[in-house]
Amino acid sequence: MVPAAENLDPYLADRDHPKLNSLSLYGDHYFGSTPAPWIPLSVKLQLRTPQLAKLQLYKCHITWNDLPNLRSLSVVLTYGPKLTELIQVLQSSPLLERLYLERISIFTEDPSNQAPLIPINLPRLSTIIIREVSFSLASGLFARLSPPPTCHNSKIELVLDHGSGLPGFCHQAGRVCIPQGLAEQITDPRLHILSHALYIQVSPDRSLNISRAAWSSQEERSAMPRRSELARGFFEATTAVSPKPRVTQFHLRVDSRSNLAEGLAILHEFLPEVEELDIGIEKGLEALEVLGESTTEEGSTVWLLPKLSVLKAKMLASSVKFDDIVAMAIKRNEAAALSPQTLSPITLLGLAYGRVQSESLGRLDEAGIKYEMKGVAVL
After folding, report:
1. Which of 105, 164, 272, 325 is the most buried (most CB within 10 A)?
2. 268 phi, psi to nearest 5 deg
3. Model confidence at 14, in pLDDT bands (50, 70, 90)?
4. Residue 99 contacts residue 125 (beta carbons within 8 Å)
5. Is 248 exposed, middle or buried (0-12, 13-18, 19+ CB in 10 A)?
6. How far is the CA of 38 from the CAs of 59, 159, 343, in angstroms?
């Protein structure tokens, strides 16, 4: 233990620490308002710790050095390291198993000193958690990092003050969340396409969450005009295998008709084997009617999500009538009866927080479609 308020240098600087295995540094210095309400404690030392396996930095930064035995690195609430420094540390730490970065902003670097696009090889990495770091740090890291199949925990959360470079970043994030196209690891997938955020989960331990902070209307229009395009880039990376992964359940949340239509199109393109679809809708329920219409491609009849048998729709912001959705389900089942090899019938329709005519429920009974209702007024 270092006595409170003492300078750390006499204890750590200019010394060899051949047996030091774990080091945690915590700073609580608050000064002024530039460049932030607090200035992190700066420990100007060269760590000569060949056996250091665990390093935690909180509100402080250090003079970085190679850490060849490092297994766990955690950096929270600080300015720094520079991207070039972080890449150097990671490239020199082939035994790293856990990387945790939260609320980090990086120093502006001279463009002539940009880190080369040399891959970061971390064959033992099992956990990577990135939360509210600067976009330049996250994108620079993901452009070089390809996690191994052993990486089972990948969570990325960014709050952006601009949106440039997002399409490429989302593709890189998909590659990080599902290493080397291991699509069989997609469990409990979820997609939220909202006006203020994009959330993609491929499993409880693998997700991407992007939200915006104080964007102007111009930035909003130019940077994220269609969040569905960003989601498509993510899934292009996660499903870069053949044949398509067999994912049978999916959760979709949207806040507009156009986003619902795009969400259904993304599912059909990348996860066509979905059998159970659970949708939360703020508005635009009528976009579901596309499930009752076929299209023709190269002379063949094509249905969206042809394996779909369970459809659950929950209204999140307004009370609407579900009668058109009932009609869609019945129409789809009539088509399935004529083409049972190419189209599955809907066997269960779930409705939540809306209204429905009693006659529509009678039609479901006649068609043999089971239904579940919660908070639905029968008219």
Report:
1. 325
2. -65, -35
3. low
4. yes
5. middle
6. 9, 20, 60
